[in-house]
């Protein structure tokens, strides 16, 4: 039995125009699937939904591959406005629509929100948003150099934008909690921290008290920003373990052979 969403009243003949609506859906599917496949692609009648007093939409299950949970939507109308019981029934629209349990693509997310650290490749461009809270105009940012920021900008040497306090805090948190921070497993097993290592290069400015760059080509963090509390086995104060200067041969005892005395010659 046809289920009808009871809102405005609608002519009964629109409710019962199921076969007309099905034929319209099959006709629409024929162009892509062929007549034989189109007949099978339009499944059982699911419901009829009243759009207004003279318009109603019939829904049919979509049975062809790749459209699980989708529905054929066929909207039909009858008669001119004010006279819905008169005139021929007209098919207004045929379209495939996703049902409540349909498999659909995830909601679109703008590219600048999808990008993640490490995604940028050779030739890619990643412009910062105009309202990026990590940046402020150069003349407002903290001065980490020997010249005043106003003088630097005036002579054309300054940067138009520098890290804001929020940007610096975010970078510090990221580096501190990252693989080269004091909480890393390597740091916990290290004989000393980066802050006491001769290969440690301090950063200039406000970050210098907590972070630097490793300058040891044999260290796992060479060329990377490391926290003062990070460390590894390539610390400059690591000494080779002491060894005995005299080689000691190993004594091997074989107790698996029974020894018997050899009788002396008579």
UniProtKB/TrEMBL annotation:
It holds the Pfam family DUF3027. InterPro entries: DUF3027. This is DUF3027 domain-containing protein. It comes from Pseudonocardia oceani.
């Amino acid at each position: 039995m046809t289920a009808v969403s009871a809102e405005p009243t609608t002519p009964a003949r629109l409710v019962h125009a199921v076969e007309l609506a099905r034929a319209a859906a099959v006709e629409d599917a024929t162009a892509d699937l062929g007549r034989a496949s189109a007949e099978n692609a339009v499944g059982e009648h699911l419901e009829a939904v009243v759009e207004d007093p003279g318009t109603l939409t019939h829904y049919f299950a979509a049975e062809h591959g790749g459209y699980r949970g989708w529905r054929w939507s066929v909207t039909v109308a009858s008669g001119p406005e004010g006279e819905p019981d008169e005139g021929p029934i007209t098919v207004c629209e045929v379209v495939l629509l996703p049902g409540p349990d349909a498999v659909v693509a995830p909601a679109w997310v703008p590219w600048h929100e999808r990008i993640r650290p490490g995604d940028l490749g050779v030739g890619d461009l990643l412009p910062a948003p105009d309202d990026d809270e990590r940046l402020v105009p150069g003349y407002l940012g903290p001065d980490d150099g020997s010249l005043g920021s106003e003088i630097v900008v005036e002579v054309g040497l300054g940067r138009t934008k520098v890290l804001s306090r929020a940007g610096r805090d975010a970078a510090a948190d990221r580096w501190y909690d990252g693989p080269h921070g004091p909480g890393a497993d390597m740091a916990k097993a290290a004989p000393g921290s980066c802050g006491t290592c001769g290969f440690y290069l301090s950063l200039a400015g406000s970050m210098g008290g907590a972070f630097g760059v490793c300058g040891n080509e044999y260290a796992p963090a060479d060329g990377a920003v490391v926290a003062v509390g990070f460390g590894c086995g390539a610390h400059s104060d690591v000494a080779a373990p002491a060894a005995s200067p005299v080689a000691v041969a190993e004594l091997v005892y074989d107790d698996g052979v029974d020894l018997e005395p050899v009788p002396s010659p008579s």
